[in-house]
Amino acid sequence: MIVEIGHFALALALGVAVVQALVPLWGVSRQDTALASVGPAAAITCFLLVALSFAALVSAYVRSDFSVETVVANSHSTQPLIYKITSVWGNHEGSMLLWVLILTLFGALVALSRNSLPMRLRAGTLAAQGLVTVAFLAFVLLTSNPFARLDPAPADGQDLNPILQDLGLAIHPPLLYVGYVGFSITYAFAVAALIDGRIDAVWARAVRPWTLLAWVFLTLGIAMGSYWAYYELGWGGWWFWDPVENASLMPWLAGTALIHSTVVMEKRDALKVWTILLAILTFSLSLLGTFIVRSGVLTSVHSFASDPQRGLFILGILVFFVGGSLALFAWRAPLLRQGGLFAPVSRESALVVNNLFIATACATVFIGTLYPLVLEMITGDKISVGPPFFNATFVPVLVPLLLVLPLGQTLAWKRGDLLGAAQRVLAAFILAILVALALIAFSRGGPVLAPLGVGLGVFLVASALFDIGERVVGRASGVQAMFSRAIGLPRSAWGTAFAHAGVGLTVIGIAASAWSSEAIGVLKQGESLSSGRYTITLDSITPRTGPNFRADVARFKLAAGDRVLAPIEASKRVYTARAMPTTEAGIHTDGLSQAYVALGEAQADGGIAVRFYDKPLILLVWLGAVVMAFGGGLSLTDRRFRLAAPRRAQPRAAIVQPAE
Amino acid sequence: MRRLFALLLLSLFSAEPLRAVQPDEILPNVALEHRAREISGGLRCLVCQNQSIDDSDAPLARDLRILVRERLVAGDSDAAVRDFVVARYGDFVLLSPPFNIRTLLLWAAPFLILALGLAYLWRRSRRLVVPAAASPLSDEERKRVDALMQDERAG
């Protein structure tokens, strides 16, 4: 019964979404305020209905209701509760429902936000959001119903794919989806602005928090996914240029460009047309990502569902929303007036250059991901585009951007002073050179580019810190004055510093991976294997039984030189329901570095094959992303977003006065 | 059907626990082994999803890894080993697609886009010159201003 309520609520939500998509626009065109204000109520109702539906599905999984098809295919009665819940979105149907849930959540948040939007903009935005909701609700109901019943119900389920039975599944997809789907709001705002034919700083200020929010979650989602792949897949890599990874990287890059271009628009009323285009493209890339992942068109380890009917449906959605919005853009964008002139050397120009490089990087990933598909369709030739291609093209595009980033960060708006900016980053630059030189001297004969990469990272971190430091210290004398200056700085200035420092940390982590080392060997009890700075000694292998798996756990002593560290446990599991083996890597975190052990096969002579890595500074890769996201979060709490409403109140007061 | 699904998953997520290179494959010659790893990292495992043979544990990937090592031991250069594998499996086996007429656009696109973008910005920055700060009046202009001012007062 609960399951049917969930299904019914979902169908009802589709009806409400149709209302949300059509009625407000009709109201605006007829100048009917009552009709135009239906949007918020519809958006909130739609969210509540989808939330009810989602809760019903969660309940079916928690109760192990094996009369529901998707529960049978993806859950098992012996699974721990947390994995019963995460199984909800560990499959195609449920993950699409989560997608729609977050989509309607964002619609409801716009409806509830007290950010004083012009009526026409709010109506248009909610209508566009409603239209996206209609499309995806129809997709779930028509092709991917998670509530389908099964008769007769089997005694037990087929278990969730063991690879997915991990805390990563609880965190990664929700974070990623909030990021992906959050960009639907910027898309909806852009479409509304195009319909309205007007766009200004008010628009930019209204859109910026949503863009930042989506970007923060997408950043965390990608970083979490990368770390999950790193420890779960067991071969020590953390980025594979897999199409599914690229699908999440593209909206992230476009979103990063968007964050920077909306700043220019908000502060200087420039780059309007480009910003609108970026807002459309960012969500279009999210849709493309959903298409790639859900249709299985570019098969990869992630696509646990592939079905041509679903693929065609999503392709239709993709063509409609991307094509429709781009057509609207081509028709209406010439109406938007360009404003805000700026000199070739200025903060604005720096941000334009930033946008060019990030957009190029994004295009590189786009072309690399889709080229093999298009080439095969046209000529029938099959080629592979893998990591070597992306390393050879993506990196050269991004490195120049990172090199000039510190300069752009200190340039003034409108008209900057290049020499002055160069002087301000000089200290950071010298520090970076010194670090690189020291590393080159220290690691003679090692990788050549790695010290330069670390130097680049140090340059980014140091210039961000020095920049904010200079603004805090300034000419202030005494700790108290400095403290009050630090408090007085806009949060967005702190956010920028943190985000850019985070980029630097990630760059250091990536560069340092050139020093990682790997050892492969066969170990018997008491035997040792060394890799880089670490040595492991096999202590014991013992069987263990988990709730739904059996495991062989190998225990290793770990030492770094004379230093004895905590022991490492790595295991091989066999999940009973699917008789499927997995490896659980053993990881010891030593400062920012990690020692990483993955088990292989038991050998005929009684030993066990072992892969053992020393991963210096590897944690910086993800820590940098977390710092970036933290910076984004800080910007989100900036005064001007919190105090948007009182600002509108001022002109009103001004109007009242003459009437006295 | 259910068995088929299980098989599909097994092939997707690799049945054997040890990932990739196994201890018995490793060449005693460290330099050769290093070259073998470099080459394997650029060859696609043909039956896997986006994995190099160095990362894969499919039997075919193992065969290819051993083949690469055999060729190296026989004295082939890196390029000769790659050519040998491409001759058997086609360009599809290379994770870094060869530069030719079919992949021209793929390789050129990133740099083309960047160059076009920079050229556009360069032209625009020359068109959009911010008006310079007001320059001081020339003597002639000053005279005309004075004349106008006097007209005003007279009028």
TrEMBL record, chain A:
Give the molecular function GO annotations: heme binding; heme transmembrane transporter activity; lyase activity
Q: Quick check: keyword Transmembrane in the entry?
A: yes
Q: Where is the Cytochrome c assembly protein domain?
A: 89-295
Function statement: Required for the biogenesis of c-type cytochromes. Possible subunit of a heme lyase.
Q: Which organism is it from?
A: Bosea caraganae
Give yes or no: UniProt keyword Transmembrane helix.
Answer: yes
Residue intervals passing through the bilayer: 6-28, 40-62, 96-112, 124-142, 175-195, 207-229, 249-266, 273-292, 312-331, 352-374, 394-413, 425-442, 448-466, 492-515, 617-637
Alphabetical UniProt keywords: Cell inner membrane, Cell membrane, Cytochrome c-type biogenesis, Lyase, Membrane, Transmembrane, Transmembrane helix
Q: Residue ranges of the Cytochrome c-type biogenesis protein CcmF C-terminal domain?
A: 315-639
User: Known InterPro entries for this protein?
Assistant: CcmF_C (IPR032523), Cyt_c_assembly (IPR002541), Cyt_c_biogenesis (IPR003567), Cyt_c_biogenesis_CcmF (IPR003568)
Q: Kindly provide the name given to this protein in its UniProt entry.
A: Heme lyase CcmF/NrfE family subunit
UniProtKB/TrEMBL annotation, chain B:
Ranges in a coiled coil = none
Pfam families per the UniProt record, alphabetical: CcmH (PF03918)
Which InterPro entries did the record assign?
C-type_cytochrome_biogenesis, CcmH/CycL/Ccl2/NrfF_N, CcmH/CycL/NrfF/Ccl2_sf
CcmH/CycL/Ccl2/NrfF N-terminal domain: residues covered = 9-149
Q: Name one GO biological process term.
A: cytochrome complex assembly
Task: Write out the entry's keywords from A to Z.
Answer: Cytochrome c-type biogenesis, Heme, Iron, Membrane, Metal-binding, Signal, Transmembrane, Transmembrane helix
- What CDD domains has UniProt attached to this entry? CcmH_N (cd16378)
List the molecular function annotations (GO) for this entry.
Answer: metal ion binding
Q: Which residues form the signal peptide?
A: 1-20
Q: Which residues cross the membrane?
A: 104-122
Listed under GO cellular component are:
plasma membrane
- Tagged with keyword Cell membrane: no
Free-text function comment from the UniProt entry: Possible subunit of a heme lyase.
Alphabetized PANTHER family for the sequence: CYTOCHROME C-TYPE BIOGENESIS PROTEIN CCMH
**Which family does the record claim for this protein?**
Belongs to the CcmH/CycL/Ccl2/NrfF family.
Per its record, how is this protein called by name? Cytochrome c-type biogenesis protein
- Organism name: Bosea caraganae
Q: What is the lineage of its organism?
A: Bacteria, Pseudomonadati, Pseudomonadota, Alphaproteobacteria, Hyphomicrobiales
